[in-house]
Write a structure and sequence with these properties.
ten-stranded mixed beta sheet, 36% helix, single chain, Spore Coat Polysaccharide Biosynthesis Protein SpsA, Chain A, alpha/beta, 21% strand
């Protein structure tokens, strides 16, 4: 494997899914073109994740894989924040963010290359766990403050679609944009963090999906097909944060002068209704209602926090001097 310029670092966040992580690292080792670095953020896993990382090191050149274990579980949001920080500290020009339950396609960086000449926040396409194309193109509805899946229905004749939402299951972001908007916000813990981060980036540059397959999802989830979209099952932790974190999204909207309180409140009500629907139709229970209620109470408390501030771009590691590795 040979290392390209610019320097692309892959930031992987993992927690107690060593089997998926092993497969992901194996796919990274098989890439046609090597990344600059691979930062594995271990969110205080209690399984054999550390052994899996150590065993995988032999498949890579010395120093390429950075084993970055955290002392506490900071959630996906904290992991991606720390992974981005570490990647830029090491001198990366780009950070490719991904969960541990995907597989990298061998020619992924070659697929990204032409788009990196034009855009600074890029999402490639993914295959679903069954090998079918996973087509998720969402765009924030500015009035409601929610990203509506499949609101971007087709790629342009040039092979890309502009959006203002995104996912950490494959977002590729340039260091210059991170230095404008700050690191991913760890306060989200899980849910809304990636959509909000892409929205922030879209206030400064074009965020795009490109018609190029770069990843395959590996984890099968319980879900139903509604035609216009799929609904997966959700955990108690997810249910709490998906409602609580609406307040963080709203705070960022307000910071940029894009908050419509009436519309945003309606968007929160629709989000709550969707989660109740998910409980009934996908999980066949109402036992998770309490999680949503707790999330709503926490949501209201965050709206009342007068000391809230967005992530500070000054906290992002500065670019290394030219020629530094």
């Amino acid at each position: 494997m040979s290392s390209p310029a610019p320097k692309i670092a892959i930031a992987i966040v993992t927690f107690n899914r060593s089997g998926f992580l092993r497969e992901l690292l194996a796919s990274a080792a098989a890439m046609d073109t090597a990344p600059f670095r691979i930062v594995v953020v271990d969110n205080a896993s209690t399984d054999d994740t550390q052994q899996v990382i150590e065993q995988s090191l032999a498949s890579f050149p010395p120093g390429m894989v950075i084993n970055h274990r955290l002392e506490t579980n900071t959630g996906g949001s904290g992991g991606f924040s720390e992974g981005t920080r570490k990647a830029l500290e090491l001198g990366a020009d780009w950070v490719w963010l991904m969960d541990d339950d995907v597989e990298i396609l061998p020619d992924a960086l070659e697929q990204f290359d032409p788009w990196m000449q034009r855009f600074k926040v890029i999402h490639g396409r993914r295959y679903d766990f069954d090998g079918t194309p996973f087509y998720w193109q969402a765009k924030f509805n500015q009035f409601l403050g929610v990203p509506l899946p499949y609101s971007v229905k087709t790629f342009s004749d040039e092979g890309y679609a502009v959006t203002n939402s995104g996912t950490f299951e494959g977002m590729l972001i340039h260091a210059d944009i991170v230095r404008k908007i700050g690191l991913p916000d760890p306060r989200f813990f899980i849910s809304w963090d990636d959509a909000a981060y892409a929205w922030l980036a879209a206030q400064h540059t074009e965020v795009v999906y490109v018609d190029a397959f770069v990843l395959k999802r590996k984890r099968e989830q319980k879900q139903i097909n509604l035609g216009v979209r799929h609904l997966n099952d959700g955990s108690p932790l997810f249910r709490f944060h998906v409602i609580r974190n609406r307040a963080y999204v709203g705070q960022y909207f307000r910071e940029y002068g894009k908050l419509n309180r009436v519309g945003f409140g309606l968007g929160t009500a629709l989000t709550l209704a969707k989660e109740v629907f998910r409980l009934i139709v996908v999980q066949h229970t109402l036992k998770g209602i309490g999680d949503l209620v707790r999330g709503f109470r926490a949501n209201r408390a965050l709206w009342r926090d007068r000391d809230w501030q967005p992530m500070d771009p000054a906290d992002v590691p500065a670019a290394l001097p030219p020629g530094t590795t």
